[in-house]
Amino acid sequence: MTRLFLSLCFLVLISSYSKAQGLHTIKGRTIDTASTTLLSGTSVAILNAKDSTLVKFTRTAENGSFEISGIKNGKFILLVSYPKYADFVDHFTLDSTTQVKDYGKINLTGMAKILSDVIIKGNRTAIKIKGDTTEFDPKAYNIEPNSKVEDLIKQFPGFQVDKDGKITAQGKTVPKVLVDGEEFFGDDPTLVTKNLRADMVESVQLYDKASDQASFTGIDDGEKTKTLNIKLKEDKKNGYFGKVQGGYGTKDFYQGQAMFNKFWGKKKFSAYGILGNNGTVGLGWDDRDKYSGSSGLTMTDDGGMYFSYGGGDDFDSYDGRYNGVGLPVARTGGLHFDNKWNKDKESINTNYKIGSIRVKGSRNSISQNNLASGTQFSTSDEDFDNDMFRQKLDATYEIKIDTTLTMKVSVDGALKKSNTSNHYVTTTNGENEYFLNSSDRTVTNKADDQNFNMNVLLTKKLKKKGRTLSLNLNQSINKNSTEGYLNSENKRRIIETGAIVDSLTNQFKVNDITNNSFKLNTAYTEPLSKTLTVIVNYGLTLMNGKSDRRSFNQSGSGRYDILDTLFSNNFELNQTINQGGAIFNYKKGKTVINFGSKFSGVNFKQDDLYHNRTYIRNFVNYMPQASYQYRFSQQKSLRINYNGNTNQPSLDQLQPVRVNNDPFNVVKGNQDLRPSFRSNVNASYNSYKVLTNQSIWLSGSYSFTSNPIISDVNTDGAGKSTYSYINFSDKMQTNFYLYGQVGRKIKLLDMNIGLNLDANGNSNYNYITTNQGRTLNNTKNYNYGGGLNISKYVEKKYSFYGRFGPTYNMSRVSIGTNSDGWGLSGYFSGNVQLPVKFEISTDGEYQYNGKTQVLNKSFERFIWNASLGKKFFKSENLKFAVTVNDILNQNVGFDRSATNTTIRETRNTTIQRYFMFSVSWDFNKMGGGIKTQK
C-alpha cells in the first residue's frame, strides 16, 4: 500500500513538472477528403516558426493517426504531406494553457481534384539538395503560356542568363544542358533553353557531371562538368511542338529560326534551322575543335602532348568563334534522334549538325607600354574576313547485356573547312614620336580539318555487392591541312646608328598535322568494409603525331618552290604513357570522404627530321586528390575538395617553332625547364529553407603553384621583345575565388530579392629586361564585386528582373604604375501586358569603369533594347513584334584596359542600332494530362 501511494505521488510530481516545463502533445488523424480513406504513412513534421528548422517528425499509423509528445512552449508550424496530395500547413502557438493540441481529422485533398478546379497558390518545396545535385521544382515558379525553359531558369535563385542565353549558376558557367539525362544536340545549350517549352518540364537538376566511369563506380575521379538536366513530364512525351520565327530590319539585318520536335513513346526527334546576321542566333559552336590552339604542342590530362594546329604564325584553322567583334552571317541546322527499346535495355542517341559562319570587320587599337627605359607608343589596325563551314555527326549506343553487364559505344566525326584573310598594320614610336618599328602584314589561309573519335565503355558488376570492373577504350584521329600566303613589309630602327632597316617577306606556307591516340583505362572497385571502398585504376596511352610545316620563297619564275629551311620544320612525335592510382571512398551516414592519388609516367620522343635531331624526355606526373562531403539534411550540404597536379613545360617553352610573321616578338626556348606543381582547394555550402523560400550558396577556391614557369621578356630600345621561360622557385603564384549569394521571397512585397558578393585575384611573376637592367615584376590583380537582384511576377500584368552592383578592381605591379578603380554594372529585363494582348518587353545592360592612376578617363555604356508585340488567338501562340536594338546607339565597340605595364584602347566593328519587324509562331499538339499553374 505504501509503495502504491509513493508511485502515485511520483506520477503526480512528474505530471506537475511536465506542466511546469510546458511539454505538450500534438495529435490528429489524416483522411482523404473525397473518399474518407485513412492515409497511413503520412509525413507529419513540427517546425520552428522562426527559422523553419525541424523540431519533431513522425509518420501516421495504419488508421491515419499520429501523436507527437514532448513539445515545449513556443510558436510552431505543422506540415502534413502525402504523395499526390496538397500539403496541410498550420501555424500554432503552445503555452501553459494547452496541454494537448488535438487537430482531430485533417482532411487532405488530392492534387488532381484541386488542379481541375482552382489555381493553387502557396509554398512548395521549390528546391531540394541531394548531395551534389540541386533540384528545382517548376511548379513553384511562374510559367507563362508558350514560355521557354530559359524563362523558367531565370527565376531560380543563384541563376543568371545573359542576352545570348549563356547560363551562370551559383557563380559558374553551365556549358552542358541535357534532356532526361541525354544529350540534345550536344554542343549548344541554347537549343534546349530557347526552344523547349517550360510547361513540359517536371524538374530541373543542377550538378557537376562526372565521367561515365565515375558515374558507374560512384567514386569521384575529379572530372566534372557543370550541367543542367531538364526532366520532362511523362504526359508531355507524346505529340509534337515547335517554333517558327523570322524578322527583317534596317541596315539589312535579318534573322530566321525554325524548330520541330516530336515525342512518341520512348522516341524523340528534333530538327532545326537558324540563319541571321544580327549576332543573336546560331553562334554557339561551343564544342570547338579540342585540338585548336595557338601553341605548337598542347598537354593532355594525363601528361602527354599532341601537336595543335596553330603554330603561332596565324596559319590556324578558324574555329567559328564570334565574340561581338565584326559583322557575322550564320547559317546552321541539325537533326536529333534518340530512342529506347527492349524494355529500356537498349538505347541510341544521335545528332547531325551542319552550318557556316562568316565574320567580317576591323579592329583598331592604341597602346602605351611603360618601361624603365622609357615609354613606347603603338598603333595597330586590322581588317579581317573569316569564313567556316562544318559538318558533325555523333551517335551513342548503349546496351544492358544482362543485369550486371553494360556496354556503351560512342562515335563522332567532324569535317571542317575554313578560309581566313587578315591584314595588319602596326607602328611603334618612342617618346617625342621617335620611330622605332613598323609592320604591314597580310595573311591568307585555307584549312581542311578532319576529326574522328570512338569510345567504348564496358561495365561489370561482380557477385560481391560493391565489387565492379570497368574498361574504357578510346581511339581518336585528327588531321589538319592548311595552305596560305604571308606577305609582310617590316621596318626597324638600329638604335646604335639610327639607321632604318627594311625587310620583306613573301612566302607560301603549307602545314600538314596528324595526331593519333589510343587510350585504355580499367578501374576495379573493391568494398573493404561496409563504409570503405577502394577503386584501383590503370591506364595506357599510345600517342603519335606528325607536324610538317613548310615555308617556300618565290623563285625568279614566280613560283613558290624554294624551301626556307629556317622557318620550316618536320617533327614526328611518339610517346607512351602509363598511369595508375588508387582512390579510397568512405561513406557513412551523412558523410562521404574520397582520398587517393594517380601517377603517370611519360616517355616522350620527338624527332626533328629537317635538322636530324632527337629530343627525349621522361617524366612522372603526380595527381593527389581528396574530398569531404557532409549532407546536413535534404536541403543543406557542405563539400570540400583538394586536387594537385604536376605541370610539365610545353613545347613552346622548351623548343618553340620558329615563325616569321612578327619579327618584333620572338620566342626563345629553354631545354632546362623543370615541371611546376599546382595545388587547389575549393569548398561549397548550399542551404535552402522550404517555408521561407530562403537559399544560400557559398563557394570558394584557393590555388598555389610552386616552382612556377614564368616569362622572361627582353625588350630592346627599338621595341623588339624576346620571350623565354624560366623556373622561379623563390615565390609561389597564387589564385583565389570567392562567391556568396543569399536570396529569399519577401511576402509583404511579393518579390524575390537576392544579395551576392564575389571576389577573385591572382599574384604572378615575370622578369622584364631593358637597357636599364633586369627586374622582377610582381603583378597582383584583385577584383571585388557585389550586387542586389530583384524579381517580381504578377500574372497577366507584368514581370521584371534586375541586378545592379558595384565593382572594385586593383592592379598592382612592381614595374610601372598601379591601376585601381571603381565600377558599376547592371542588367534588367521586364515585360508589361497591355489590353488587347499587346505587350512591351525591354532589357538593358549598363557598364561603368571609373578613372584609375593610368586611365585618366572614365568609361560608360548603356545598351538598351525594347520591343512592342501583339499576340493573337486564345493560345497566344502567334506574335508580331517591332524591336529596337541598342536604342541609345552606345554599342560602339570601344574598350579600354590596363595590364602590367601596358595601357590599351581598342575600337572594333560591331552591331549597332537597328529596327526589326518580326513574327513568331509556336505550335504544339501534346499528349493529355492535367494542366498546372502555380
UniProtKB/TrEMBL annotation:
Domain Outer membrane protein beta-barrel: 460-770, 775-921
InterPro entries attached to this UniProt entry: OMP_b-brl_3
Keywords of this entry: Receptor, Signal
Record-annotated membrane-spanning stretches: none
Signal peptide as annotated in the record: 1-20
Name of protein: TonB-dependent receptor
Organism: Pedobacter jeongneungensis
